[in-house]
User: Which sequence fits this backbone?
């Protein structure tokens, strides 16, 4: 069997703050294979961005620190690398794109300068060659007249164009893994679709793995192969995208699906999950979802014991006491080799907006 | 018909592709330059500054070396039109005030420029490091500048000037130096006046380091040094230019204060020394030497302040009105 490109095992991260310790990532495990898209889904503050940043070791420290766990990339534990070795991984093996394309480019440099900087950092090429590579990577992300655009400043471009530039910059060194932290959240819906389409196309061409961080289940359905649902710093459900959408096991995942708007449905109000997201500084006892959970029904177990993430069905992990046969299911480290069966239909070359 | 249509379409495409070439992009600096050249007052001040620089260069060329010491008339002669040397009268030794005044620009500008550079280098580097790294480093630097700024400025500068003056130090491979007039003043002023800029830059860096493009720079594998100097420094450079232009005037005045207190330049004419020399003469009604030096300082300070304001208006986007 193929080896995973990146495997995160029992990752624990803490932030030491004035008001005590906060644990934004607790016992998180997942893996990603070449060419695969793993989506981490969850609401704001559930720890999905922090776990992504921790892969590149970009968590500000202090206050952040890794309490334990392993991040194994191609057989090496990234947490054990020196800062200099880590700089070689950043940008070259693992690249990242951010949520806000409007602020992700330095306003005082042309986009050409910025892409060339990323290239010359990891490849021993002359500036002229780097410019050629930069031009090609701009062409790859569908920017017309790339040679001219290299001389543009970020403020001369629209949000969608800037996100394309960010992707071009991230992909210029041909990384094996791309971390996309809410890459389309700040863009409007048509541009979102174009950017995701572009990512799919480039992923297919380069057999690149993508870690997609999002809170948008629509984006997950269209793009992910496997999905980890995060709630209150933990992965509460982990499965293939088809499995998750067809047979959600965790009440939080069920709640997420119920609260999605449906085409053709005649409802005045969208359903919501009762209660609010728990404050990471004051998590409830036991299962962190129990105060909002429709399945709890006064069960003291939910209140007292936090359920482990168990393989409740073959290739499907969940952390809920009320899943059938939960106690008998084995506790295993979640990992899935899976490609989505239905590839979203590739549309024509998208228009530039 | 179709051919014509196709041709005009082709022309349109060409025009669309060429447009970005002819229209230069609006950058902060290009915008600022346009704003400054548009302002008449700023351009006049720039002209005045240029005159001062030319006069200082004449001082450096040695053309005035003889004129400043020569006796051109009786002691304390009032201004007269009899000869150029007498336009601004003579001092108590009969030396021409005009020539000494012109020569004084040399000291004033040297002190102002060099002290500005010393203070900017210290303030910028400490501000960048403090804001970017935070933690203990930040705490230490904040402690340092709080301490420096809590000591009354004039006391600190006097103490420094006093300690530095006549200090010998050896530069390996170059030789031994003794700190005399101008370098002493430059160091004393430079070492005491970086706090404002340092604070300002630290605050700005605290804000900038949270920007996504800094995270993105880290994510492509840049080291801290490159991020600080290549990605953050250019974004605070407008603060440095504003501080530089506003600092020039203040440093010229400080030179006067130091000379007035007897800690300034002693080996060559300077505006501060002229005012110091003239303070007793003034009681005897000899006003011209005091007046000449004061006017020279006044015009210089006014020009750099207006220019500094113009730079600030042009470079600080928060101060821009709608226009």
Assistant:
């Amino acid at each position: 069997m193929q080896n995973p490109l990146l495997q995160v095992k029992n990752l624990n991260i803490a932030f030491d703050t004035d008001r005590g310790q906060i644990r934004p990532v607790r016992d998180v495990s997942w893996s990603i294979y070449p060419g695969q898209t793993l989506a981490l889904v969850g609401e704001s503050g559930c720890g999905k961005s922090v776990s992504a940043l921790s892969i590149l070791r970009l968590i500000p420290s202090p206050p952040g620190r890794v309490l334990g766990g392993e991040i194994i990339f191609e057989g090496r534990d990234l947490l054990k690398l020196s800062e200099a070795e880590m700089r070689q991984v950043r940008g070259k093996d693992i690249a990242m794109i951010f949520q806000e394309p409007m602020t992700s480019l330095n306003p005082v440099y042309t986009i050409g300068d910025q892409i060339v900087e990323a290239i010359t950092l990891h490849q021993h090429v002359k500036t002229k060659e780097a410019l050629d590579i930069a031009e090609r990577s701009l062409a790859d992300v569908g920017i017309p007249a790339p040679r001219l655009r290299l001389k543009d400043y970020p403020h001369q471009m629209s949000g969608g164009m800037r996100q394309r530039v960010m992707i071009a910059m991230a992909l210029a060194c041909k990384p094996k893994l791309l971390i996309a932290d809410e890459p389309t959240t700040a863009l409007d819906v048509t541009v979102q679709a174009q950017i995701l389409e572009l990512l799919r196309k480039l992923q297919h061409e380069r057999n690149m793995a993508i870690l997609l961080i999002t809170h948008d289940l629509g984006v997950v359905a269209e793009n992910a192969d496997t999905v980890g649902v995060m709630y209150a710093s933990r992965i509460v459900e982990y499965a293939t995208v088809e499995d998750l959408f067809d047979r959600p096991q965790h009440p939080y995942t069920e709640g997420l699906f119920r609260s999605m708007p449906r085409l053709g449905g005649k409802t005045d109000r969208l359903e919501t999950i009762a209660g609010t997201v728990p404050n990471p500084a004051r998590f409830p006892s036991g299962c962190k979802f129990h105060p909002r959970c429709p399945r709890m029904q006064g069960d003291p177990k939910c209140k007292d014991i936090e359920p482990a993430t168990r393989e409740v069905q073959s290739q499907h992990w969940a952390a809920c006491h009320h899943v059938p046969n939960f106690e008998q299911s084995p506790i295993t480290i979640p990992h899935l080799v899976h490609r989505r069966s239905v590839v979203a239909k590739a549309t024509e070359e998208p228009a530039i907006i | 018909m179709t051919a014509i249509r196709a041709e005009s379409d082709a022309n349109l495409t060409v025009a669309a592709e060429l447009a970005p070439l002819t229209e230069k992009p609006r950058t902060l600096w290009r915008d600022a330059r346009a704003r400054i050249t548009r302002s008449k007052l700023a351009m006049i001040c720039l002209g005045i500054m240029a005159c001062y620089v030319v006069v200082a260069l004449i001082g450096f060329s040695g053309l005035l070396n003889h004129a400043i010491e020569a006796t051109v008339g009786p002691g304390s002669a009032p201004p007269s039109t009899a000869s150029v040397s007498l336009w601004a009268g003579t001092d108590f030794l009969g030396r021409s005030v005009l020539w000494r005044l012109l020569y004084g620009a040399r000291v004033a500008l040297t002190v102002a420029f060099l002290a500005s550079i010393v203070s900017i280098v210290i303030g910028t580097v400490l501000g960048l490091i403090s804001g970017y790294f935070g933690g203990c480093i930040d705490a230490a630097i904040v402690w340092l500048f709080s301490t420096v700024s809590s000591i009354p400025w004039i006391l600190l500068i006097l103490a420094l000037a006093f300690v530095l003056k006549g200090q010998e130090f050896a530069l390996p491979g170059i030789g031994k130096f003794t700190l005399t007039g101008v370098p002493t003043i430059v160091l004393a002023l430079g070492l005491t006046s970086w706090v404002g800029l340092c604070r300002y830059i630290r605050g700005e860096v605290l804000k900038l380091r949270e920007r996504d493009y800094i995270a993105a720079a880290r994510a492509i594998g840049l080291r801290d040094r490159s991020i600080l100097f290549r990605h953050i420094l250019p974004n605070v450079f407008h603060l440095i230019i504003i501080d530089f232009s506003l600092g020039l005037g203040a440093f010229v005045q400080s030179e006067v204060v130091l000379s007035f207190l007897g800690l300034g330049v002693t080996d060559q004419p300077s505006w501060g020394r002229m005012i110091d020399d003239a303070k007793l003469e003034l009681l005897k009604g000899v006003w011209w030497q005091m007046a000449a030096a004061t006017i020279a300082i006044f015009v210089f300070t006014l020009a750099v302040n207006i220019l500094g304001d113009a730079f600030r208006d042009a470079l600080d986007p928060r101060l821009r009105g709608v226009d």
